[in-house]
Amino acid sequence: MRRLSFALLALLALLLFARPLVRGEVFTFRDHSDYFQPLRYFTAFELRHGRLPLWNPYNASGESWLANPQTGVFYPPAWLFILLPFASAYTLFLLLHLILLAWGAYLLFSRAGSNDAALIGAVALMFCGPTLSLLDISNNLTTFAWIPLVLWCALSGASAPWSGAAIAMSFLAGEPFFATAGAVMFVLIRRRDVIDVALTAFCLAAIELLPFLAATVGSDRAGAVSAEEILRDSMPLGDWLHVAIPPPIGPAGIAAGLHEQFIPLVYVGLVPVVLAVVGIVTSIRRRATQAWLGLLALCILISSGSFFRPVAALLTSLPITLVRYPARVVPLGALAVIALAAIGWDRLAPFARPRWLALVFVCLMIADLTPRIAPLLKSAPFDPNVVPYSRTIGRDAKIVRLTSGRSRLPSFDRRAWIAGYLNLFDRRFDAWTAAPLVSRRYTAFYESALGRRDLLNDMSAGYVLASERIPSLPIVARAGDVTVHLNAQAKPMAYWRDATGHTAAVKMLAFTTSAAHLTVEAPAEGEVVLTQQDAPGWSVSIDDRAVVPSAAGVFRAARVSAGHHEINWRYRPPLFLIGAALSALAVMRLLLSWRFVKSSTHKKIFFSHA
Fold it and tell me: Does the pLDDT value for residue 589 go beyond 90?
């Protein structure tokens, strides 16, 4: 029965993704096209060519690619992009996580209930609006997919290596908030050997976790995110009614009238909600019911954000921004509702329902949810050539945007604004980034530069995108309502300067994702400035001789004497090397642990009904 249920869940997921799989297309809703597809494309391209992408030189005047866990450089399922054509890999990557979510939910719900209840719960979680709303913010989906398995490990008494591996994978999947939520629930459920589990999880994920933590301390997440940004996409109590009642559909084919858009469809389905009510009414005294109700209540409370003053004060006063966009907790609330629905199904057992009735309920849920989730599954052929400008724009100088607010680019014309990570398709240099965290020093410098022409020149901002004509700058291109101006006074991305301020361009400049190489003919003693962010882990050599680097504000620099010089910058962050060593040791421990691979564990997964 368990194997048949796993097969059925995988088949339903395949049918859900049938269109893009058969046509070789990719999803296009919202953040798919301008964020996650170029991010995955850039990362896979580097790995496929044997280069480890430690640094992205093209955004925010350079940024640590490992500090952004969404890149998934060391997340094993993401290596699928190295092996397959991009469109196929992109769809299969999401499909595999949807199957993982369904299988994990089945194991979790069957731990304390029947196979029928587990099947109904797994299908409901896989097809519901909050889950499929995570498709376009795929790091949230990939991490959320691990949570049911993490909870099953806590309840089933799985070995510490196995449990630690599940928690580590949830972090490597790319969303620290969901990974932390899963780890906290694990600890609350199971207090035995949690130190062993925690050390295993930490060491396995250390190769990416340590660079992320280091970057977080000096980023805008460390107390520099505005209250408005933190509380964006808050969700009042009334919007939770749409978990059970389908909201009105807007012009774009998705829910309209909600106060938040982070989760575009909060509808879980009428059948699961009715079953959840049955579960609450008939088993309110059970610890499991109370635990799931507690999770749901916590999610409702956190999601209220700006609509409930105490929550708003708490979220905005934390020294580290843990929860940005409070509605992001809705999928956890949906998990709680569906767990209660599984309990409710089993409470109907005294009515001696026939086994086939579970399949009828599955069909009813699918029929109810399918037309509502359809807009989230729109797909089209993959096309990396989407920027409507010549490839020369942004290749010799950085792009900067002058809008009413850097976080509010017009959504109707993202390609014209080269929004998100679209610049990575053509490797254009962008003065800003869509990364979830940015250096506080660089953020302050960038925001100052938007109002000062001299700072724009210093940061090598040679192309200015604006919605209005800038009289002092010549126009080089247009696309829709966007005008591209040339700022000829911008300094080169690498240049020599002396103490009096005289400058000269370098002869040659080349970037990789872990180094920068340049050649300069220095007219006199001076300093060579590279307008890439200064960050821990960068070392420099001049004419094959290691030297002590200097800094030019937020940028990197090195002192040179007069004459010809070859300068090489190399990026090897110490915490990455420490993390790599810890992860290697943890992997060896897993491979050598008989408890991790013993066959009885696999028997428990497939046959245990306890």
Answer: no
pLDDT tens string 75-130: 999 999 999 999 999 999 999 999 999 999 999 999 988 999 999 999 999 999 99
Residue 506 has pLDDT above 50, yes or no: yes
Q: What's the pTM value of the predicted model, to 2 decimals?
A: 0.93
E-state strands within 448-525: 461-466, 475-479, 482-486, 494-497, 503-505, 508-511, 515-522
The vertex-398 CA angle with 392 and 403, nearest 5°, equals: 110
CA angle, residues 184, 187, 192, in degrees to nearest 5: 165
Q: Please say whether the dihedral angle defined by the alpha carbons of residues 7, 12, 16 and 22, taken in this order, is positive or negative.
A: positive
Residue 408, pLDDT > 50, answer: no
> Which residues does 100 contact at the CB level (< 8 Å), separation at least 6?
145, 146, 149
The H or E element spanning position 559 is strand 555-560
Residues 215-263 pLDDT 10s: 999 898 888 889 999 999 999 999 999 999 988 777 666 777 788 889 9
Q: Which residue has the tokens 């575009």?
A: 264
Tokens 């040791």 belong to residue: 585
For the chain, domains (ranges, CATH) are: 398-486 (no CATH), 494-572 (2.60.40)
Dist. CA 248–CA 246, nearest whole Å: 7
61 by DSSP, 3-state: which?
A: coil
d(CA 389, CA 484): 9
pLDDT for the residue numbered 252: 67
Asked if 220 and 407 count as a contact pair (C-beta separation under 8 A), the reply is no
What residue type is 47 in one-letter code? Answer: L
pLDDT exceeds cutoff 70 at 381: yes
pLDDT on residue 350? 65
Rounded to 5 degrees, what angle do the CA atoms 566, 568, 574 make?
A: 160
14 Cβ contact list (under 8 Å, min separation 6): 21, 95
Q: What does the pLDDT look like over 265-291, one tens digit per residue?
A: 999 999 999 999 999 999 999 999 999
Residues 6 or more apart whose Cβ sits within 8 Å of residue 264: 30, 129, 133, 254, 255, 376
Please give the Cα distance from 474 to 448 (Å, whole number): 23
Contact 279, 344 (CB under 8 A): yes
pLDDT at 590: 87
Instruction: Give the per-residue pLDDT at 410.
Output: 45
H or E element, residue 570: strand 563-571
Taking CA atoms, 87 is separated from 38, 281, 438, in Å, by: 12, 47, 29
Distance CA 308, CA 304 (A): 6
**Between β-strands 461-466 and 398-402, what pairing exists: parallel, antiparallel or unpaired?**
parallel
